What we know:
Elements: E1 11-15, H1 27-35, E2 39-42, H2 57-69, E3 73-78, H3 94-99, E4 104-106, H4 111-121, E5 125-127, H5 131-134, H6 142-152, E6 167-175, H7 176-181, E7 194-201, H8 205-217, E8 226-233, H9 244-254, E9 259-261, E10 274-276, E11 279-283, E12 286-289
Parallel strand pairs: 1-2, 1-3, 3-4, 4-5, 6-7, 7-8, 8-9
Antiparallel strand pairs: 5-10, 6-11, 11-12
Amino acid sequence: MIWRKLESGDVVGVVAPASFVTSERIRNGVTWLESLGYTVRLGETVGEQDRFLGGADADRASDLGAMFSDDEVRAIFTARGGYGSSRILDAVDYTNIRDHPKPFVGFSDTTAFQLGLYARTGVPSLSGFVLATDAAEGPPSSDMASDVFGALEGVFPDIDGLEGEDMEGTLVGGCLTLITHLIGTRYLPDLAGCLLFLEDVGEAPYRIDRLLTQLLLSNVLKAAAGVVVGAFHKCDGDGEDGTVGDVIDDFRGRCPCPVITGLPYGHGPSRRVMPIGVHAQVLNGTITFRGRGVDGEV
């Protein structure tokens, strides 16, 4: 899969495949992208609202397809997560996307679309950045900005500080709730030989345990190369619940593949941008990304 390197003057698209978002809420993010030399093209449903959604399902799917088919658009950014990406999975034209591949950048609820995208087309994407959250007050931190645009060029710096045994495979992952939501559908990729990376937000430890148990009961991890655990932000419980750490320790003992922790990826104030569909190796606590997205095969 070839990603053409972004250049000054290139057009980048902004879509709202999940919850509604106002143009005002992403104004600073758009200004930041323009300050970097890009021409920003807003999707037609940005600013639209249908209850908690960014417009009708058919319109959001059509908007997403139009951004992929438009050859002037070199990369697509998500305006906001929230909820709703899974509602458009059956309406997306995956043949169109396969014929017009380009980097898609999202996070949180777009896990559903990004995993469906990879499962149906093999097109990789980037998870860890949305305009309405990460550039709401202006330019994101220099580390995050470097991560986003480095990843768009297929450059993924090593990640240190993981704890657990060595493993190797193709990275697939995102928000745990959305991953389990896709079980039993054609939109969850085959996890055989994959490194499944996980995070979530605002879930009590017992709910995290229930989601992880669903992964086990569905047998989707039976041939996985490993599970890489990120941050579970605001997932505290009461005194009887224990901690998410306790839940992960218990899960490690039940999981058919190795489980490692310490991935700096999640809903906290800072995170790494993670590629979906890129090969990676974990050795001595460090992730090395072996795939490239620019001028070569992922």
